[in-house]
């Protein structure tokens, strides 16, 4: 019966993946891998699972920032942190930053985001660095997804035990880190619910088309989408912000080939702190959607939101431009809307 169930699951995955030619081959590879992992995990002993978690955690670092200054770096395997040297207080707001594949907390975008969060949000910013595991192949990193989820959850629970309040918490994840942010948030429920979570072009390969309710990751979850080849097609966040052309491609990729539409997502997100990214009032006719479009007021802008408006949910379409900082003016947006009418 178990063998039939696994075979039936693989058949369903294969059928759905064939609908989308862009994702089919790559996602099939990782979907089968996940099925094998699920079968194998039933035979893993608790001791083996703990050893794997330890092997990953002992290479991870927890980096604390206060007022945009790195104040402390410690091992992720510690079960308690001496916060006296970090400048952080449990009464502070806190932000967690999770990077993607072949990245670290030292990447330019991570440092820029930490600076913007420090300026606009204040409090304590904590970047969790798992770059040792993330430096190998994507498939290798993918096999560690559950392990990293557990390790990061343990780190956050340690903070909660020291008095940090989930209601004052924010978490950001880019690409693979976006999937981790969602999984970590969901694993903390029902005892702890992070106030707000933002993700940028959450990774698709290996995760699609498995239906996941990302809205369960936190009280307010908004996900920015920017690419068709690396980003997920599961749009289940409270808000799904479709950047550029239907959330599938960015015009500026023509001048930013090294970033691609996927990499541009995090640059655009960081720019939303300082530049207005106006949203369209309706779904562009060329964009196909399974989800309801959000009802938004004129002049509505997207980005980091301190006070989340729960009345605005669904898909939000935000055109982007060819050149930095990649936003459109109100006038350009109006002309675009007229042209598409």
TrEMBL record:
Signal peptide stretch: 1-24
GO biological process per UniProt: lipid catabolic process
Ranges that cross the membrane: 139-160
Major subcellular location class: secreted
Keywords: Membrane, Secreted, Signal, Transmembrane, Transmembrane helix
Top-level taxon of the source organism: Eukaryota
Compartments it resides in: Secreted
InterPro entries named in the record: AB_hydrolase_fold, Lipase, TAG_lipase
Residue stretches making up the Lipase domain: 49-209
GO MF entries: lipase activity; serine hydrolase activity
Keyword Transmembrane: yes
SUPFAM superfamilies: alpha/beta-Hydrolases
One CC-aspect GO term: extracellular space
Family: Belongs to the AB hydrolase superfamily. Lipase family.
PANTHER family: AGAP010328-PA, LIPASE
Name of this protein: Lipase domain-containing protein
Organism in which the protein naturally occurs: Drosophila yakuba (Fruit fly)
């Amino acid at each position: 019966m178990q063998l039939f169930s696994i075979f039936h699951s693989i058949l369903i995955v294969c059928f759905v993946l064939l609908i989308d030619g862009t994702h089919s081959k790559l996602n099939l590879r990782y979907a089968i891998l996940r099925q094998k992992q699920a079968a194998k995990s039933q035979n893993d002993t608790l001791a083996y699972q703990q050893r794997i978690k330890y092997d990953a955690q002992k290479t991870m670092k927890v980096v604390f920032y206060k007022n945009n200054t790195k104040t402390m770096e410690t091992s992720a395997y510690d079960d308690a942190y001496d916060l006296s040297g970090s400048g952080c207080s449990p009464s502070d707001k806190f932000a967690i930053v999770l990077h993607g594949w072949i990245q670290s907390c030292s990447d330019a975008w991570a440092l820029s985001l930490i600076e913007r969060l420090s300026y606009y949000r204040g409090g304590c910013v904590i970047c969790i660095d798992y770059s040792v595991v993330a430096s190998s192949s994507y498939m290798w990193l993918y096999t560690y997804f559950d392990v990293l989820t557990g390790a990061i959850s343990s780190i956050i629970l340690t903070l909660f035990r020291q008095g940090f309040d989930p209601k004052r918490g924010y978490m950001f994840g880019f690409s693979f880190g976006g999937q981790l942010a969602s999984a970590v948030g969901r694993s903390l429920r029902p005892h702890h619910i992070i106030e707000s979570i933002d993700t940028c072009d959450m990774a698709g390969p290996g995760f699609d088309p498995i239906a996941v309710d990302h809205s369960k990751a936190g009280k307010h979850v908004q996900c920015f989408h920017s690419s068709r080849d690396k980003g997920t097609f599961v749009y289940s966040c409270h808000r799904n912000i479709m950047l550029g052309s239907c959330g599938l491609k960015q015009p500026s990729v023509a001048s930013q080939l090294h970033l691609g539409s996927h990499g541009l997502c995090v640059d655009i997100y960081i720019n939303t702190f300082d530049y207005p990214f106006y949203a369209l009032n309706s779904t562009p006719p060329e964009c196909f959607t399974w989800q309801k479009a959000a009802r938004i007021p004129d002049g509505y802008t997207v980005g980091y939101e301190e006070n989340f408006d729960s009345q605005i949910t669904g898909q939000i379409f935000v055109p982007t431009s060819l050149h930095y900082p990649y936003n459109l003016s109100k006038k350009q947006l109006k002309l675009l809307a007229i042209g598409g009418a």
